[in-house]
## 1
Amino acid sequence: MILILFGPPGAGKGTQAQRLEKSHGLVQLSTGDMLRAAVTAKTENGVRAQEKMASGKLVSDDIVIGIINERIAAEDCKGGFILDGFPRTAAQAEALDEMLNEQGLKLDHVILMRVDDDALVDRVSGRFACGACGAGYHDSFKPTKVEGVCDECGATDFSRRKDDNRETVATRLTAYYADTAPVLPYYSEQGVLTQVDGMAGIDEVAAEIASVLDA
Ligand code: AMP
């Protein structure tokens, strides 16, 4: 199964991708996570991407397409994967189709997580993640069960993304509406697009996505 979780920053793509890894045995491929790792490791791609990411603008297509092309060929992706944050432009969507074709693979679903713009800023600005296992949390909507301790692995180190602030979210939303949302007709024409209500609770959204995948 190959699926794309589609939606604006803060829609809950990462949260649902982590759930689907466990429930459906799929691998989460987040271009944002891969780029952040490249920035931390100061690789050539990381150095090229850093400034754009810090300001909330899109990183160039050639960088992200290259990263995904390499990643989907890896052994752990053979059982299926979830694209989280890719594609984000028409050129990326077309490149993805070519990559999948070359590998004899097919895109099964594109799930659009619809969320009101007003909710996105609050959702994004309260996010944090476990520094050890990467489990995602939110100050109000998904706090850890025990304060300061990761539910998943028990670690006590957490991090917040530098671009999860009100100003940068506005730029990220602008990029979403200018470059990413216009890709949706491409997928509705292919008959693979389904919309879910991303304003619902995490469990309800997970159930709605599962019902699409398991239909
Ligand atoms: P995310 O973690 O998906 O919110 O991505 C964080 C940042 O990484 C974005 O604001 C972009 O600067 C960059 N980024 C991630 N994925 C892509 C992509 N597919 N195309 C271009 N830039 C991306």
## 2
Amino acid sequence: MLEKINAAAAYVQERISDKPQVGVILGSGLGNFGNRIANAVKIPYAEIPGFPVSTVEGHSGQLIFGDLGGKKVVAMQGRFHYYEGYEMNQVTLPVRVLKQLGVETLFVSNAAGGLNPSFNAGDMMIIHDHINFFPENALRGKNIDELGPRFPDMSEPYTNKLIVAAEKIATEESITLRKGVYVGSSGPTLETAAEYKMFRILGADATGMSTVPEVIVAVHMGMKVFGMSVITNVSEPADPDKGTTHDEVQDVAGTVEPQMTKIFTRLIEQL
Ligand code: HPA
């Protein structure tokens, strides 16, 4: 694993002149954020040794290095999902490579289904905690002591200081932000009405098919994390016929992307 991380990082380092300090993972429909990065150097995943290739429509699959909010950043346009068939080590490899490249703070975004009855499609939710409902933990297996401890502390996976700062920015910008718990499960099926209800009972406010494995490995390596869900659809147990489509998810996320970008950019400025 270490060799794999080093090989990918070494390849990327050859292509960039400055170490990135901030990493941003762009969720479904949020890829346009990458176009806001100045002096961009783009490296397709397919070129990076050991990187899997993203298979989902709307995830183009490249790293974008450049400047944003006065910092050196790297965005992941496209991520690897467990439902695509990748092993957890593959899903999380890019985050480990980002850390190796110098990234200390990771911003994660995703499209998610709303479970909290007060949420509407188009809302943005700060993730303040998560529930790992994937069938395995991303750190299962022999611990890589060079990366982090066997039993990582998970009492504050999402850095509280960043949450407080984001809430302040949102108030200043008159952007309404929700805050809640994200439950990550494997997908690719969207939830049945009974599953939505179960997740709500478990204490989650939003549900999706990503983020949790990436955040687990980031926390393992001591990175600071800020997470945001775009609520692209809401569960309506009373009206289970109203389904959700992938197009709908992408459209709603695309509409909200400018606001998310504003919050991320201003947070990055303050780091
Ligand atoms: N469930 C799971 N993942 C999702 C959803 C959902 O309702 N919406 C967007 N991603």
